[in-house]
Amino acid sequence: MTRAAAIAAADETFDSGRFREQLAHWVTYRTESQVPESAPYMAAYLTEAIRPSFEAMGFSSTLIPNPTGKHGPFLVATREEDPALPTVLSYGHCDVIRGLEGQWRAGLDPWTLKVEGEKWFGRGTADNKSQHLINILALSTVLKTRGRLGFNCKFLLETGEEVGSPGLHEFVEQEKTALAADLLIASDGPRLEPDRPTIFLGARGALTFNMTVNLREGGHHSGNWGGLLANPGIILSHAIASLIDRDGRVKLRELLPAAIPNSVRHALADCPITEPPEGPAIDAWWGEPGLTAAEKVVAWNTFDILAFKTGNPERPVNAIPPVAVATCQIRFTVDVPPETFLPAIRRHLDANGFGNVEVAQSTHEIFPATRLDPDHPAARWAAASIERTTGRRPAILPNLGGSLPNECFAGTLGLPTVWVPHSYTGCSQHAPNEHVLAPLLREGLRMMTGLFWDLGETPPPLSSARG
Question: Of 91, 101, 149, 223, which residue is most buried, by most CB within 10 angstroms?
């Protein structure tokens, strides 16, 4: 059998409706990692949906408790054909963001797949159920067509990515031998452009922290005390304004890279970012002056406010509030160590008269930043495979603008990491009306089938990380 036959079989899997039927079933599992009551759905998804898919391909699978003892389990599926063959590790997360029932557009339900033209709606359709479904079915297609994969495969599914992947680092360290491989190929996140295949080779990191001004107990009447009592909301606003200006330029330069590496600039020169038809308009004036849009979101650090609260926003009263809290986030590249951020902010605030502003990391774990050189053999090989399948040169991003637990694979396991996303930036990920585009799913299944076929036929030169 041939590569073309495998890709034709992938087309038939999608066009026959089997892909849609399986995704529709998987969407019904309410795998919300932020909702403790959803824990039974996590275990059911792994045992009822995922495990049978792997066992049908001759994989052995093991459900392993989370090392934290209080979060969801992990599933590891393994198929070893020959110890002398390359081993690929893949990854996916079965958890989703809260369903947000009642906030979706009329006629849509987060737990029911709804097809409207090219759009398939449902929670997890973009993040991440369709993406690991594509990769699982691509493996199955290669196996059925060739009779073997032609490589060894390990697949890790976690249940807590949407809450910072608690226990994942400890798990990967604990299972380092069992997860040893030569290369990571996985899927998450959006393409650079909907109509352009994309590869990304790492991820920006994320540090979430709180800035708090807590001046006193209780509020006090603004008519009697306005002008006499310091307002924590105003103080906090000025403290934040000392860190970032009105145009989004970070003023505290210790939070930023000294420069963008030339190899990264070169790669991003081929990756222009345009506005998706249904996405927000890009504010070209916002952010670091002199950078392209791609450089701003891939190669630079950003400071953002995720939430700001003082007083009672839902029902304001005539009172000077006692407390103000802002939840802030820094997205960062590998060029600046994240452990330097909060000490730098502390020094800056003290030096500028904001000693009463507390700074503390939130409960979210830090996502470390990772980046693989775009000229790495695995990156070049993957790009050539995708171009062979689609006839189009993929965009190659040194890292994603968002954050993923990629450091577990790039750092702890020492793997070159290649991510092939199957969604797009207008998918309403993490919001009501989450959806995917059917043409991207179909092409994604074709691309991954071709990629796994090529891995079993002409793998890239790899330095084994398996010892």
Answer: 91
Kindly state the average pLDDT of the residues 329-350: 97
186 — pLDDT class (breaks 50, 70, 90) = very high
pLDDT of 464 > 70? The answer is: no
Would you say 445 and 162 are in contact if contact means Cβ atoms under 8 Å apart? no
Question: What is the token pair recorded at 244?
Answer: 């970032």
* Claim to verify: residue 24 and residue 119 sit in the same structural domain: yes
Same domain, 416 and 376: yes
Would residue 277 count as lying in a domain?
A: no
Q: With beta carbons less than 8 A apart as the criterion, state whether 339 and 205 touch.
A: no
Under 8 Å between Cβ of 322 and 219: yes
Q: In whole angstroms, how large is the CA radius of gyration of the chain?
A: 24
Based on the fold, state whether residues 381 and 344 are members of the same structural domain. Answer: no
Q: Are residues 180 and 241 in the same domain?
A: no
What pLDDT does 365 receive?
74
As a whole number of angstroms, the distance between CA 451 and CA 388 comes to: 10
Domain membership of residue 266 (yes or no) is no
Pairing of strands 119-121, 114-116: antiparallel
The tokens describing 310, both together, are 């003082």
In what order do the strands lie in the sheet containing 114-116? Answer: 114-116, 119-121, 435-437
State the DSSP H helix or E strand holding residue 149, giving kind and residue range, or none if neither.
none
Q: What share of the chain is helix, strand, coil (3-state, %, to 5)?
A: 35, 20, 45
Taken in order 220, 226, 231, 237, is the CA torsion positive or negative?
positive
Question: 131-164: per-residue pLDDT in tens?
Answer: 999 999 999 999 999 999 999 999 999 999 998 8
Q: In this structure, is residue 262 part of a structural domain? A: no
Residues 130 and 224 placed together within one structural domain of the fold: no
In a domain, 351, yes or no: yes
| Separation CA 448–CA 384 (nearest Å) | 13
Q: 């950078």: which residue's tokens? A: 291
Question: Beta 319-320 vs 220-221: how paired, if at all?
Answer: antiparallel
- The Cα 348–Cα 344 span in angstroms is 6
